[in-house]
Amino acid sequence: MIIKSRVALSVLLNGIQDFANISLRRTMLAGMAALALGSALVPAESQAQTRLKWAHVYETSEPYHKWAVWAGEEFKKRTAGKYEIQVFPASSLGKESDINQGLQLGTVDMIYTGASFAARSFPRLAVSYYPFTFRDADHVIKYSKSDVFRELTDGYKKATNGNTVLALTYYGVRHSTSNKPFKNCDEMKGLKMRVPDAPAYTAMPRACGANPTPIAFAEVYLALQNGTVDAQENPLPTIEAKKFYEVQKHIVMTGHIADALLTIVAPAVLAKMSPAEQKTLADVTQEAAEKATQEIRKREGELVGIFKRKASTSLRSIALHSSNVCLRQSNSAAWDWTSATGTAWLPSSS
């Protein structure tokens, strides 16, 4: 009787286990079916994306970053979520020379850069960066739409095996800041002036007998603060964004270079895109460049008055000169610097 009971109990338990296994399998199959159905119903834009890295050395407060972020969001929208662009500001992926190399190495997909840095691969591209090549913002913008610009960017593309310039953004007219005031070329003699690490930027200080000192952009504030250099040069919006006025006593409106940034994309990125997607990327980056250019031009004009008012607080004096200053090159050729409130100093017509 006991044996029969045990057998019956064993059969019962086996039956319960079989039923549990069948129920578990049914539950798992139902779950898998629901998951598959759910995946099929998820919109395409929320599925896996191709992520692109856009690197630059500028602050998040600057228009270049703001409109790069906008371009990324707009490109994602116009490609129904197929692409997502992540923007890395403030040298977070390396200094400017590093991110240029990154295009070739595949560590970045897109960059903002000055032509002088891109010109390490194609020297002719740097012709636009020497002092007084351009009169003002309008002149820079006309150049960006010219056959000369297309010829130079095509040459750069060939030299780099496919790096493509998508857009040009006006960066601003470069002026000088210094703890030592100067009103002409002679008074710059011996001045240690930070410049970007590119030959075109050394031309003005070298011609005036100053000591051009290349320092990475992210390190400039500290170099000015601790006296490694006496001076630096950048457009007014950059001087504001990087707060150089906190560690410099004078802003000297030298206006020696009307500057611009290039938006460049690596060939591997374009190779994965359809022609329509390539055009969309070009369109959004050009739109972003136009929007950033408008902001920079507007801010340049506003900052002249703002920096004058800062003289009683952050700065002890602001040197905005109305006299002409002679910029001499090593071959004794010369340009005139003519200051104008809020605009570049233009080369002499003679």
Summarize the structure.
The chain has 350 residues and is of the alpha/beta class. It has one domain (46-338): Bacterial extracellular solute-binding protein, family 7 (D-Maltodextrin-Binding Protein, domain 2). Helices cover 43% and strands 20% of the residues.
Features of the shown structure:
350 residues; alpha/beta; 8-stranded mixed β-sheet; 20% strand; disordered C terminus
What this model shows, in words?
This protein has one domain: D-Maltodextrin-Binding Protein, domain 2, CATH 3.40.190.170. Helices cover 43% and strands 20% of the residues. The protein is built from eleven helices and ten strands. The strands form two sheets. The protein has an eight-stranded mixed β-sheet. Helix 2 runs antiparallel to helix 11. The longest helix is centred in the N-terminal third of the chain and has 40 residues.
Question: Any chance you could write out the topology, listing elements then pairs?
Answer:
Elements: H1 2-41, E1 50-55, H2 63-78, E2 83-88, H3 96-105, E3 110-113, H4 115-118, H5 137-144, H6 147-159, E4 164-178, E5 192-195, H7 199-207, E6 211-214, H8 220-225, E7 231-235, H9 236-241, E8 250-265, H10 267-271, H11 275-309, E9 324-328, E10 334-338
Parallel strand pairs: 1-2, 1-3, 5-6, 5-7
Antiparallel strand pairs: 3-8, 4-7, 4-8, 9-10
Reading off the top of the CATH hierarchy, the class is best stated as Alpha Beta
The value of Rg in angstroms is: 29 Å
Number of helices: 11
Output the structural class.
alpha/beta
Q: Kindly state the number of beta strands.
A: 10
